[in-house]
Amino acid sequence: MKRGLLALSPIVVLILVYLSMSLASGDFYRISISVAFVVAAVYAVTLLRGVSRSLQERVAIFSDGASDKNIMYMIWIFVLAGIFAATAKAMGAVDATVHFTLRFVPVEFLPAGIFVAACFVSLSIGTSVGTIVALTPVVTGLASQMGADTAQMVAIVVGGAFFGDNLSFISDTTIAATMTQGCKMKDKFRTNLLIVLPAALLSLGLYIFIGLTGEGDVEVASLAEWYKTIPYLLVLVCAIAGMNVLVVLVLGILTTAIIGLACGSLSGVSFCEAADEGVMSMCELIVITLLAGGLMNVVKQGGGFEYLTKVITNRISGKRGAEAAIAGLTVLTDICTANNTIAIITMGPIARDLSEKYSVSPRKSASLMDTASCFAQGVLPYGAQLLMASGLAAISPLEIIPHLYYPMAIGVMVVLSIIFQFPKILENKR
Fold first, then answer.
1. Whole-model pTM?
2. Residues 6+ apart with CB under 8 A from 363
């Protein structure tokens, strides 16, 4: 027991260090979470003395987590997204897209419209990160033009992005959840939809209310430079078509360069300067991602995950308890790994054993895992989605979290579905 608790202590150190520094400074947005990660990382490597004798071996364990292929893939996305966002902005794509949007969508319905657009895009492409990459730069420009709260507008995109991440047939989380639980995608979709639909409708109603009660008359410019919206439209279309997000971003960068050079809004030098600025804007995000990957590998190697699993599963009694354990273990694993797909794959076999033992239908088990992981990932300040959104919008992840109505709402719906055992209409015995 002591070893299990000790293995989890790096996460505790991370939270305590960040909270203490923020409280001491009197401002939660003043201190970067990267500092807390460095302290926790040093502590974690020191903690491994009982596992590996040499410092080199301990650092190697940390480095294995930091250099995981999923971490490296995210860094590729971060770098290309930073370049695309910065070069498109320098070319004038953001302003042109904002003017285009404001001309055709009433200002009072923009929050609701953004949420619906994010839901549609994410459902089509099956990735929350891709949706955030495509929509955040535009939404940030809209917020500036309208005088709206940037954090709130970005949070709408993040919420809508997790709608599709949770439900899309081509989402990694859907594939992982259905494969590990042994159910059909269409069955999981129907059960999952009945759990999260009330949260989506409630969020949409809230965004309509926010738009109708908001203020702001905006001056809509002409559409003379409509062609500058092409990079964003291309990224959106290619993403919906199912292209790999890396290929989509490269196409977006190339299109931005061609249009910018052709119309004279960019030169070769200014394009390179903007690209460099985009890469630099992602540096802290990349460092945090690497440190998080290494830190969570230390927790895993030390037996932290195994300890959590034993503690929770030993206290189960009945079907509700099994469902609560499935959702709870998924959330805890997501907090430790900062990756909802990995959380589902890691906890999948345990969840399947629990569902078989306590007669939880495979579709309900898969839905609980997927929805719980999206809830956790949606409000995790060091998760890829919030880091990406905050990096593109140049704000702190903590500024976004209070406005994440949809991720919080689906968390509530998971709890209610366990307590009241719904949706019963689609439940089936094994």
1. 0.72
2. 181, 183, 184, 187, 188, 190, 191, 426, 428
